[in-house]
Amino acid sequence: MTIVMKNIYKRYDKQYVLKNISLELRAGKIVGIVGKNGAGKTTLMKILCGNIVDFEGSVNYPDSLSNRPIGFLIESPKFYPNQTGFENLKFFSQLFSIGHKENIDNTIKALDMEAYIHKKSKKYSLGMKQRLGIAIALLGNPEFLVLDEPTNGMDPNGIEEILAHLKYLAEERQIGILISSHQLDHIQKVSDYILVMEEGEAVKSIDKDDIVSYKHVTIAVKSTDLQRTKLMLEREGFEVRLDHHSLSFKAKNMNPILKKLSLENIVLQDIEMKEHTLKDIYFDEREAK
């Protein structure tokens, strides 16, 4: 089951806030969206959920969506502050004829809300409110879930719990999840596929395997070998940065490089390798602009 968005444009007056965005959200997969404030992330999410209907392009939904509506938490959670968390869940469950008490109880437990679910929600911290918003989004056992900054205001333990639960929802319950966050490490941790947005455009699409397959490598050689080593690496197709007495580049497998250096009688004085991250890709893209 897949939601397919094709060639989406959205404008307010004469200003386009989305420009030719295409996206597929598959059941059982997590798609992460990253970008600065104003990049168009929230607008794209609202279009996918059907909250914005005036746009150019197309959104195709699977037939099964008529029985399992999209669950969503976009911008700030919406509920009644003078009601308890449990009363809010019960109200929205009855209002939309979705979920039942067993489903509500299971969601409360899964999101670790037992300690405060019977307190009035106006007394909740921001992180507690976010959990309640996620719980409301899950009431109808949705096939797809759209979450805008779901870990906002949570402490480190809470963040880890929510990210782990999202992975569970995707892998075990086969829910397709679209998530945005300014925390790039959160997006990298849970996403199968990542869309980088800039001023309403999709500037880069990244598969999770493309992130972890690379390493940042820094090598140090004798000063007399610096230029020769740099030219050798560039001939092999690497983009190399020279910094004092070291050379930096990205590589998937160092074994062929080490063999080549040995054949060229170039002696390594030092080598350092770091995992390539979404943060590296994101800021490299920003610098390229």
Report on this model:
The chain has 289 residues and is α/β, with parallel strands linked by helices. It has 2 domains: 2-210, Rossmann fold (3-Layer(aba) Sandwich), CATH 3.40.50; 214-288, Alpha-Beta Plaits (2-Layer Sandwich). The chain is 35% helix and 29% strand. The protein is built from 10 helices and 13 strands. The chain has helices at 41-49, 85-95, 101-110, 126-137, 156-171, 184-190, 208-212, 226-235, 255-263, 278-288, and strands at residues 2-12, 15-26, 30-34, 56-60, 71-73, 144-148, 176-180, 193-198, 201-207, 215-221, 241-243, 246-251, 268-275. A 6-stranded mixed sheet has the order 5-6-7-3-8-9, with helices on both faces. The model has no long low-confidence stretch (mean pLDDT 87).
Keywords:
289 residues; alpha/beta; Rossmann fold; Alpha-Beta Plaits; six-stranded mixed sheet; four-stranded antiparallel sheet; 10 helices; elongated
Give me the secondary-structure topology:
Blueprint: E1 2-12, E2 15-26, E3 30-34, H1 41-49, E4 56-60, E5 71-73, H2 85-95, H3 101-110, H4 126-137, E6 144-148, H5 156-171, E7 176-180, H6 184-190, E8 193-198, E9 201-207, H7 208-212, E10 215-221, H8 226-235, E11 241-243, E12 246-251, H9 255-263, E13 268-275, H10 278-288
Parallel strand pairs: 3-7, 3-8, 5-6, 6-7
Antiparallel strand pairs: 1-2, 1-4, 8-9, 10-12, 10-13, 11-12
